[in-house]
Structure formats: C-alpha cells, structure tokens
C-alpha cells in the first residue's frame, strides 16, 4: 500500500466516523426535544396538582372548622 492509499483509507474512515457521529447527534437531539416536551407536560401537571392540593386543604380546614362549631362543649371532657 502506498501513502496515497493510506491517506485515502484514513479519509474514508474519518468520513464514516463523522457520519456515524452526526447520526448519533441527531438522535440525541431528538431525544432532548422529547425530554423537553415531557418536562413541560410534567411541570403543567405538577402545577395542577398543587392547585388541587391547596383547594383540598382549604376544604378540609373548612370542614374541620364546621365540625368544631357543631361539637358539643361537654364532649371530650373526662371527669
């Protein structure tokens, strides 16, 4: 093999490696986009759940206050 053949073989190997790396990069970029979309959806879901938690806590507090209002003052006292 001559130096020209070696140079051609190295150039071909580099071109193949470059092509494979570009393909990997494109796949990873697609995964990053999918991850960003999923992350946005999860963020929105978390915000919804937080709002529901606040609402449930407020309802619980209201029920507790109403229950305390109707509780007999003599109940719960042990003599």
What does this structure look like?
It is a single chain. This protein has one helix at 3-70. By secondary structure, the chain is mainly alpha-helical. The longest helix has 68 residues, at 3-70. It starts with a helix and ends in a 9-residue tail after the last helix.
Per DSSP E runs of 2 or more residues, the count of β-strands stands at 0
Uncertain regions spanning at least 5 consecutive residues: none
Q: Assign a percent range to the helix content.
A: over 70%
Q: Number of DSSP helices?
A: 1
Calculate Rg over CA atoms. 33 Å
Q: Give me the strand/helix succession.
A: H
Characterize this entry briefly:
With 79 residues, the protein is an all-alpha fold. It contains one helix and no strands.
